[in-house]
Amino acid sequence: MLQQLKALLFVLFQSPTFYACVISILYLLHRYIADGIRRCWDPRRTERPPCLAASSSSSTNPQEDIPRLDASSSSSTNPQEGTPLDASSPSSSNPQDNYEVFLSFRGETGKTFTSHLYNALDQKGIYTFLDVIRLERGEDISPGLDKAIEGSRCAVVVLSGNYASSRWCMDELVQILKCRKDSKIKQIVLPIFYHVNPDDILKDKGRIWEGFQSLKREFPNNEEKVKTWRDALIQLANISGHHVDNSTIEANFIEDFIKVVSSKLLDTALSNVSEEGLVGMESRLEKLKLCVSRSRSLFGDVRFIGICGLGGLGKTTLARVYLEYMSCQFQASSFLANVRETYEKKGDDGLVKLQKQLLTDVLKGEHTVNNVFDGKDKLRKRLRDKKILIVLDDVDQLKQLEGLAEKNIWFGDGSQIIVTTRDESLLPRMYGKKEYIIHKVDELEDSEALQLFSSKAFKSDCPPEDYRELSVKVIEYASGLPLALVVLGSFLREKTRDQWKSALDRLKKYPDKKIMKSLQISFDGLEETEKNIFLDIACFFNGYYIDYVMNIMDMCGFFPEIGIRSLVDKSLLHMDHDRNKLRIRMHDLLEETGKEIVREKSPKEPGRRSRIWLDDDFIHVLNKETGTEEVEAIVCHDMSYDEKFTWRGFSNMKKLRLLIISSEGIMCCPDDDYLPNELRFLKWEGFPLKSLPRSFQAHGLVELILTRSRVERLWDNPIMEPLYNLKSIELRHSSQIRKLENFSLFPNLEKLILYGCDGLEEIGPSISVLKRLTLLKLLWCSTLKSLPTSMGGLKSLKVLKLTSCSSLGDLPEGLVCSNKELDVTDTGLRDITPSVGDRKALKLQSHGWKNIWNTIVGNGLSSAGLSCLEKLNLRRCVLRDGAFPDDFRYLKSLGAELPDSLEWIDVEYCGELDTFLDPLSQCNLQCSTIYCEGCFKLVDKQGSQRTAMTSLGRYLQNPPKPSKRFDIVLPGNEIPSWFTHKVRGSSSTSLPLYPNWCTNKWMGFALSVCFTDTGELIYGRSWSWEIKINQEDWGFGHVHWPVKYVDGTNFNHGHIWLLYLPRDTYFRSEWHEKSGDIQFSFKPTHEFESLEFKQCGVRLVYDQDIEELSLTVKD
């Protein structure tokens, strides 16, 4: 280009076309300057090395003159990829800043060994950074490489003889070793000692040491810098590396070394995936990568990749591993799980939810999507310039693809959209022939299948010799299907050889050997109640919270505690942790197996099946009156049916035990209302009748839930017999009901919940017959003015919640005398002090509390009859003007006036409180939960560490409930020194497990974290600890924040959470033999939360530590 410029200058004054020459000069000058800037300021230029460039020298594509930024961009036609990037710019999230491998080398190897190594990495599809300036010219100047180093998963250091003579190489090495130590980066470092001996570095001799001495002489006045370089060299020499010497055949070495790199990168990806089925994943991942890489030269820059095959083959796991492995090559990534399930349950609302998640994953922050069409428009406009990797998991309809990834123009060049599906025809029907590729997931190889099966059947990688032949027969039957191997392995575990032979003989009766039959064999081995639980979950409750499911199964008499445990043991169910709750999960193939078992009893007539879950089947059975005694359960959610149907269809369902209906459009024909009397659980959203049918004599009914119903009276039958088994009634948003009476019809009621019944004016005096009533919730019943005086006789009542009953005046005399919990937030109550009673929980958030306030600060709560109080909530007492007497906000001390029974106390926002659980005073309190968020004056006076450790010591010395954990949260900037394993500036730490750590003297774990919230206010948080033993889940899920909701108002200042987990609850017998270490990580609710971690720590607590704890407090 410079020669062209000179030529033009030479002819300038001789040419008659003067202006044309001027324009040409300006254009070439512009290109020259731009190219110079690119070369000077874009150190991440990775043009093909000479050995690769030779193969493309004949190309006529003018864009090939633009320097490429990565090894995998050779097919890109995006002109933006040639744009220079400043390393300090906000482009650190761009793919140019993230690589799988960073090559660090001296120019002397650039055109020989390093060039061949780069070529091999590129052909393997490993995304590699190469500094081409050094490669082409042998120069060592590499400014601004920090981002490229930090963004690489692995650093390969080619340590040649002259490496240490370059300040730039040494600076690179220092940065690489920093990333290796950084707990957030954990970079893999692989040294290649190229014709050098690492021992020479440690012994200050040899060629590489001579090179370092020459570099040292260049910096006589910078000893600190030289020392940093020397330390880095020594560190590298102590890392186990790979050697190249005169006897090495470099081609063979590179081939073997690439396998090492691939294995290391795969290990990193697999470490982020905790699902079953990882056996054989390396070979599966290689096949998928090869399939995708081949498509680059055939198709455009945006590729739709279908991962297809039977359910249970591991499609989801493969897609997740691929995302973990390849995400560094993209600006952002997103994994949208369970697309089919989300759409089936919520329809278009489900698609909107997934669209929001995709926008959040890629762009961060919250995004408003009004409907599916609005979401499609936002995806198209906001993602079209982003190179992203998306997984759409379990797609089964075109509409799902249309809503989430309809066209390739929605995404930036180089994007990949992975679709896992059982329907191979989806992608051909959705996209053009050259826009998609299909990758079929293969069954496991026999050796891999045997390994997976053995892990379930024998808890080892291979079977015992006497079971080997039988195991091979099982492998042949399962045909490499991972799910079948897992289920059959669990089924045959601990069975005798004769039982194995019997099971295999039974398998021979199924000639097609399909997966459904394989799974049904496990079903055949269940007890009768376990079969019922399995079928109910398969047809109705897959993905539901376990407490909800167990409650229903218990009402049906299925003994769920032991039954669900048995199904989990046999790999027919598993549990997912969702915040602080557990969800029941069943693999989709197992779900289909259960439904097929039900369907095959009557393929054509649903009225002869045991369970009905499809809306059309339900309407058919009712209107055609084809129901029979075979029908046991009906669960139909979100029905869209606005016509009348006959309820006579229920009349023949003599064994219907479970009925759950959700539809506000269903109407019944006049005079034919009927419900089966055998019902045990009835939940109907949008119940259309003014009362339950007169003929409904459900003597077995245990729970009744009516939501948004038209009920005016529950029963309108004067001769109805009592329902002695009815334990719970819940009416939600049933605004037509004015009076609740006739409680003698259900004398054994234990729970009564009226939520949002804003028309309710009166509760009948017959409520006094409910001698077993333990819970009464009257929430948002705004027109209820009084409670009957007879309620004072409800001696079993433990929980009374009257939240937002704004018209309620006074409580009946003696009503709350035995309550454990009382919540009268936002009521019109004037005073409850005369009936305070022996309550165990008190929530003070209401008007007119002068008397109770005087009790707290006067004679103490015990003197007011609260000697059994277990829970006291004083939260937000300073935030609501008029909610308390004026002097309440100046609450300054709590301690002696609190009863010894107190287990849980929340004094959040009590900003004037400066004395509470005083370490220097005698106190018998042994609270298990103490929440002091924002109590800054308290820690100023008492000290955060001393208060926390004193409270822990009091609890450990004589815990009222040894199985209960201990929590305290309070302001502070440093965790107590008592913790043995502490880490600064991190939210994670680990604890080594030494031999015999789990003795009888071991009591439990103590954890602590100190952090500050530096971001914006986010409501609804629920922070938690994630705990693993040797990188495996410890079996008890996340340990969540001690209060349900956190608004974060005070966390812009440092706070400490100290936690103790007792052995009585958190222990597994196999830990006696465990070695290695335990990993503890404090997790925010949202990835985008800005938490600054000051310190975290952990300690194993033994009997003898209690005395040391007391000494620590005194010091």
UniProtKB/TrEMBL annotation:
Read off the Pfam families from this record.
Answer: C-JID, NB-ARC, TIR, WHD_ROQ1
GO molecular function term, any single one: NAD+ nucleosidase activity, cyclic ADP-ribose generating
Quote the EC number: 3.2.2.6
Compositionally biased spans, kind Polar residues: 54-63, 71-95
Which Gene Ontology terms describe the biological processes this protein takes part in?
defense response; signal transduction
What class does this enzyme belong to in the EC scheme? hydrolase
Domain spans labelled TIR = 97-265
Q: Where is this region: Disordered?
A: 51-95
Catalysis: reaction(s): NAD(+) + H2O = ADP-D-ribose + nicotinamide + H(+)
Question: Which residue ranges does UniProt annotate as crossing the membrane?
Answer: 7-29
Q: Which UniProt keywords apply?
A: Hydrolase, Leucine-rich repeat, Membrane, NAD, Plant defense, Repeat, Transmembrane, Transmembrane helix
Q: Does the keyword Glycoprotein apply?
A: no
- State the protein's name: ADP-ribosyl cyclase/cyclic ADP-ribose hydrolase
Q: Which organism is it from?
A: Rhamnella rubrinervis
